[in-house]
Amino acid sequence: MKYSNSLNKSKFKLAATSIACTLALGLATPALADAPVSGRVVDNRQQLLAGAEVSIVELQLKRTTAADGRFLFPKLPSGNYTLRVDYLGAAISTLKVQVADAPLLLADIKLSSKSAANSATSSQLEHIEVTGQSGAMSKALNRQRNAGGIVTVASTDELGQFPDSNVSEALQRLAGLSVERDQGEGRFVRVRGLAPDYNAVTYNGTQLAAPEAGRRAVALDVIPSDLLESVEVNKTLSPDMPAGSLGGTVEIKSLSAFDRSSDFYSLTAENGYNELVSAHSPKVSGVYSTILDAGGETDAFGIALAGSYAKRKFGSDNVETGGSWDFDEGLEEFELRDYQISRERIGLALNLDYRPGNNSEYYLRSLYSRFTDAEQRQGLIVELADPLQAGQTGEATLIRSLKQRDEAQSISALVLGTKQLVGNWEWLLEAGTSKADEDTPFNIAAANFEQDFDEGVGFTGQQQIKLTTPTDAYLAEGYELDEVEMGDTFTKETERNAKFDLSREIIQPNGALQLKTGFKLSQREKTADEQVWAFGDLDEEGVSKLGLSDYATGTVDYGLGPMGQAIDPAKIYALVNSLDRNDFVDEVESQINNYQVDEDLSAAYLMAQWEREQWQLIGGVRYEHEQRDARGVRYDATTEVFSQNQLKTSEGYWLPALIGRYNLSEQSIVRAAVSTGLVRPNFQQLAPAYLLEEDDGDLEASFGNPALKALRSTNYDLGFEHYADELGVLSGMLFYKQISNFIYEADLAGQPGYEEFAKAETFINGADASLYGLELNAVHQVAGYGNWLDQLLISANLTITGSDAELDWLDDGDWQQRNTSLPSQSDRTANLALGYESDLLSLRLAANYKSAYLAEVGDLTDSAYDVYADDHLQLDFSSKYKINSGIQLYFNVVNLNDEPYYAYTGRQAYNFQYETYGRTFVLGLQITNW
């Protein structure tokens, strides 16, 4: 839908009208409130309890304590009330409060365990466990239980219960979530089977920029888990949340000094060992927070600082065909690959809070994370002259190949804001920015040495393919340098935003009503720049040393068989640096992938939340308007002319939502929601690059499509949760998503505008798609046996998902179609963790499973060439031994069962990629002033 300039202005009028209506309604309401009531909930060791439900029984008002254990009722009518505090794993606490005309600040409300509450004497009181496995689970479950929508939470303590080195790996343990891995390490997060590009990632409300070219998905392996207070995944979308997801929004929350009851520090040092590359990987991290007096106020200024450094050495052994199968004749090509990687990860966070009194808050949140990869890939490419079956041999060209790059990715974020409470009015003003970049300076994209063999080359095996070849194929002699391709790429994304939220709570005899409105402005800019050099015909340039023997060093440590001598990257760099690189620039490749996309977004929303007795309802609508300017390069090979390609678009979206919750009892909750999701096309799809070529008189084109429409989804959720008296939950959530404007790659040759083309490949919006499933979750703290069994904690979740999408194409003037599933959607995703915890020892064995899923559509017209990632089951083990109250020793094993990654073309027997990573062992020490 297009909008004129006059209509564009209407969105601002709409926002202003919404805010004015809210103000008028709030001002017209009689002032029933007289004074605020605030306090803090702790255990009897002064540990802060987040997620506790605090209610005023007579008024049916409820609050959930924040990460700092605080709660606040802005204004209560004068009178006597019963204040009730409910926290999983603790006895319910009640106290009488009297509200007059002055603010009431309650003393810390101390909770104790249920067994302590049933004890006859105070000397037998027990504290609530807020550390360790059960404490971490309790924090997460309390926050999930009291959330308005469907939320999955992992607290900082829970993140530390598994041997996970980054945010992505930590999230794979949660119900409905799974990860896509790179070199065996979790990188991108999938929510309820939807690909990472369909989910949003925010840091304290600011959407994080993505470092990779072509993508909106944020690679969360850049962010160390040490820097965070919690991670929340919102699976229902309320109007006050920015659009940008179909599956869910991953909200990363940073730590604050006020999250602790006193000064806090934690130091961690560890050493890891990867058995595949026989290398050690050190890591150190630290957290410090303190609360100071400031501005004449006691304990008003908080400082929290966290840092993390890790150097990880790892690698993989790989064999892949890339889908080069002729299913009737056999395999046409495959490659052996050995990866050696050294990764350095640095993370820093500085957070400042100033709280002068109970009604004002000023804060600054900052994050900087960077990792650098030094990656070297030694390869042996086998190009068979004719397709062969396993066990056959024949003629082939063998290519010894090297790829070497130093790549750096960074993500940073800065959020500055204030919250103010004036009577029953609360307003928030916030500005934020996020930057991300990926820099791969002058690097070896491919250095290829070739040799032809007249006979004796073939393969054996199916999934793990083994090369059959004469023994002299592994010698350096006989291979001659064909070409060296060098590259230099840089991608940058910047997001800036400002928002204002205003809310008013109205206390009524039949419940409490909160009205909320606000607006947000944001700007996003994505740029990609690439330079490519092709150093070919080197003998004509006077290069005399072209044999592999002149560039060889050592032997490749390839675990799946022999590969021969390694190619020395230093000698390749010396070769290309001795030449004038300006003579070898690939003009087309150096320009066609360069682009810039600017997006300006403006949004306004209006929502209401109503609570009465067992009910909670949230409803409202959000409006977002987008203006996009996309600029790229067009190249016509028939005329050898470059030109600029630019397209501007303007579009608006209405996003309504209705979310409900009903408490059947104190333990049981029914949830339901209808919401609207929105995801904009990724930058690879939008980039206006256009390449026109001619092949034997046939015109062929490939191009991006900046006119693509955003994907829209209507989401339906219905679920039930039952929380145990002690610690535990049983839940089941049904979900259904109807997705419109599904995007896929298509060939438009023969369609209007492309009648004379033999090939015209681009991205298009297709027909509707759907996603549906059931999400089950269970947590159980074993109790009542009076022996070691009472120290067991069992958690399990299972997500069963299905999807349908339709692909269309033109064949000889007739439209054809086939059905498929959504990319990255596994039918089953599951986790099982068995934990044991005593006063001194903590053990946990965790299994993470996801079934096979569609990785990519290999051939639009033939499902036999679709690429699937095979099912994956990984076991991880973690253990901790408490030396004393502040020092613990831990030992972890990652990928205990040495699970490989396997992908296939069409059927399991046809290898697409097989890769193994080995186990990683970690020994560490943590010092904390609990």
From TrEMBL:
InterPro entries: Beta-barrel_TonB, Beta-barrel_TonB_sf, Carb-bd-like_fold, Plug_dom, Plug_dom_sf, TonB-dep_rcpt-like, TonB_rcpt_bac. One of its GO terms (molecular function) is carbohydrate binding. Residues 1-33 form the signal peptide. Keywords: Cell outer membrane, Membrane, Receptor, Signal, TonB box, Transmembrane, Transmembrane beta strand, Transport. Residues 444-896 form the TonB-dependent receptor-like beta-barrel domain. It holds the Pfam family CarboxypepD_reg. It is found in: Cell outer membrane. It comes from the Bacteria. GO terms for cellular component: cell outer membrane. Residues 144-249 form the TonB-dependent receptor plug domain. It is a multi-pass membrane protein. Belongs to the TonB-dependent receptor family. This is TonB-dependent receptor. The lineage of its organism: Bacteria, Pseudomonadati, Pseudomonadota, Gammaproteobacteria, Chromatiales.
